[in-house]
Specification:
heterodimer; A: alpha+beta; GMP Synthetase, Chain A, domain 3; 3-stranded antiparallel β-sheet; two-stranded antiparallel sheet; B: alpha+beta; two-stranded antiparallel ribbon; 6 helices; 8 strands
């Protein structure tokens, strides 16, 4: 076992990156992600991703029973998690030890009344999201800033939200 | 407790909608959402905290992680599916339509995953396309269900966030 940095086997990480860059099949496999979301009654649902599951519910202000975070909160958390993942990946590749890392995310819905069917105008989605990273590391502050910007640029979820994705939708009735 | 459809109390749902029409403070409250994500201190494992809820984010072994939970891109399409599902139930319940069964299957295609891995600079590492399929069983004509689905997609907070460009403001705070 080679040396570990940030809990990651650096040699293994580099080997993995080398292999992925050569294998087209692997790249294809890592480019498609799936989930199924099942209704559990009321506003409660459960998402199934490979061998994992996640519950989503709605807050009592929106008639839910708040047994889990709601969909927009899940979205913000996934943005934060993606930037965090990308930051750890980039720091480890550059041989930089990270001592502590937390991201706080805050999102503003433009017009929630469109979601509730009360108004027709405006966007029921987030039009602004603020991400604040709290990083503890002995590395130079300017370098950490560069890594943070690089992590944002390479983050899949950041790019999905910032660039916009095409969504195709279908319904099958029984 | 009044009449219940789809597990939702119609009276309280209607009074919530009434309240949202006139109570600006409530509207403000349900327009702002927060999450915190902490690195667990070793490798690709992270915990998110949302009010008093929490879940774990990780990476599969193919991406060098211990697979202690779904990864961030899996959570994004799950958030989209959950949002469509919430909207579908809301819009069906408002019309008095009983839903027996509802499942949404989603598949997202990343434009260029190699940008995330730092191997390529071409394209972008986000989803270029997401396919969402709703499977619904209800005692109601197909036309109405299609209308409910169209309305749901059009008014979905997560759907609109993903389909439009969102302004994201990154800030960095270094801890000494």
């Amino acid at each position: 076992m080679s040396q570990k940095l940030n809990g990651i086997d650096v040699e293994g990480l580099n080997k993995m990156l080398e292999e992925i860059s050569k294998e087209k099949e692997k790249v294809k496999e890592l480019s498609v992600w799936r989930t199924r979301v099942r209704w559990l009654g009321g506003f409660k649902s459960r998402a199934y991703m490979r061998r994992h599951a996640l519950d989503v519910d709605e807050v009592s202000d929106i008639s839910g029973i708040d047994t889990a975070q709601n969909a927009v909160e899940t979205l913000l958390a996934s943005l934060g998690a993606c930037i965090t993942t990308t930051f750890i990946l980039i720091a480890t590749k550059r041989n930089i030890r990270v001592d502590n890392l937390e991201l706080a995310i805050e999102g503003y819905i433009e017009n929630i009344l469109v979601f509730l069917g009360i108004e027709k105008e405006g966007n029921p989605g987030f039009n602004k999201i603020i991400v604040t990273a709290y990083i503890k590391s002995e590395a130079d502050g300017k370098l950490l800033e560069e890594l943070f910007i690089e992590a944002i640029r390479a983050s899949p979820v950041f790019n999905t939200l910032a660039k916009g994705s095409q969504i195709d939708y279908k319904i099958k009735t029984f | 407790m009044g009449k219940v459809i789809n597990g939702l109390d119609i009276e309280s749902l209607n009074s919530l909608l009434d309240e949202a029409r006139k109570n600006k403070e409530l509207v403000q409250k349900i327009s702002k959402w927060y999450a915190r994500v902490r690195w667990a201190g070793s490798g690709f494992t992270f915990n998110s905290y949302v009010r008093n809820h929490s879940f774990t984010i990780s990476e599969p072994s193919e991406l060098g992680g211990p697979d202690k939970g779904p990864n961030a891109v899996e959570y994004v399409i799950s958030a989209l599916g959950a949002c469509y599902l919430t909207g579908f139930i809301l819009n069906a319940t408002k019309r008095g339509v009983n839903i027996k069964n509802l499942e949404i299957a989603l598949e997202g295609e990343i434009d260029n995953i190699l940008v995330f891995l730092g191997i390529s600079n071409e394209g972008h590492p986000g989803y270029r396309k997401v396919i969402a399929k709703a499977y619904v069983e209800a005692d109601c004509d197909e036309k109405t269900l299609k209308e409910i689905w169209e309305e749901t997609v059009r008014t979905s907070p997560v759907g609109n966030t993903l389909a439009r460009n969102v302004e994201i403001v990154p800030q960095l705070s270094l801890i000494k």
